[in-house]
Write the structure tokens for this entry.
Amino acid sequence: MEKLHFAKGRTLLPLVGTSFALGNMKEAIDLIEDAQSAEIARAEACYFTADAKGCVDLVKKYLASDDVMLRLSADMLYVFANLTLGNAGEAQAARIDVKQCLERALKEAADAQIKASCVFAYYLINIFLHIETEKEMPALEDCISDLPVGQRLFAISILSHGMYLKKEYLKAQGVVQTAMLMADAVYPIPFIYLNCIAAMCQINQKEQEEAISSVKKAISFAEKDGLFEPFIEYHGLLQGVLEVCLRKSEPEIYKRLVDGIIAFSRGWMKIHNSQMNRDVTDLLTPLEFSIAMLACRDWTNQEIAQHMGLSVNTVKHYVSDILEKLQIDKREKIKDFVNQ
């Protein structure tokens, strides 16, 4: 790639940034006039409907594109789709390319939209992987206003996720709620993520009913188009809320999600653990991981049982199994093995 540039009208992750009626995702993609942007949008559809291989096959040819919007979009999708496929090396290479694009944008004093897009991609990958961002990089909040509305909403979900990781739950929740209230239309994909972030913050404040309501809202934006990948990504951080909402009422959907959760989590851990020198465990089932997340946050067995619709004795057995699998003797030590 010579100097960073993009074709007029192209944006990052065009499907993420598109407002469309629920159930009309395919029609929305068909309305994208630029052929290459439409292909990226089809790759997004594959990714968000948990077709990682289909996504990788579509974006592979854009990884070395001269158009920075196509390239960054391909990089981001390639990172996360390859986590599910167990290809940590390919995911890491695309992650590095995003960082190099950002460094070039800063060196070349690229225009505001290119810089904002590079910053967006850099933070998205690092925050989702819980990898610390470098202090010399521009702040995401300083670049959000230079993104189109739909991408801006998704960037706000990333920003609020970063606040969540700093345990700024009330602040993150306020940012999410403000973003959704100010949205000028329905942007299904960003709305799924924003509602999941709200639920993550609420469950950490033991606001179970509010968290369940937020996840149900996220599901309402996802179900008609089958956009269930965000729930795979956020499963652990939702701390049992997904089980409450789907495990008994939608067992087939939940079973499909479990398979994706296991695959994605293992790929996520390969990169996160090597970068952060910390071993998030892959020894637990998704249900055990949810219970582990609650147990290490000082939830009592009674509280966990009530939240997840299980008996107290069942929770006790799960906690004992978790301690045995992790080879530890106290529940407070669980926090060393989960992604908080």
About this structure: The first helix runs from residue 25 to 30.
